[in-house]
User: Fold this.
Amino acid sequence: MLLNLEDIIPERFLTNQQSADLKEVFQGCGKVLGELDEMLVEYLDLDSHGPGKKPKRF
Assistant:
């Protein structure tokens, strides 16, 4: 889980450009982690249907 950027690095230590760049990188990382999480859920679901395994029922 990513924390709020303002809680990690106070604004007073960064220029406006540095802050904007860091926020952009931080958001990109969050997006990639979300996509990886979706893939992991998909593969775990596929694994549950492997040979000799019964499909999950909800």
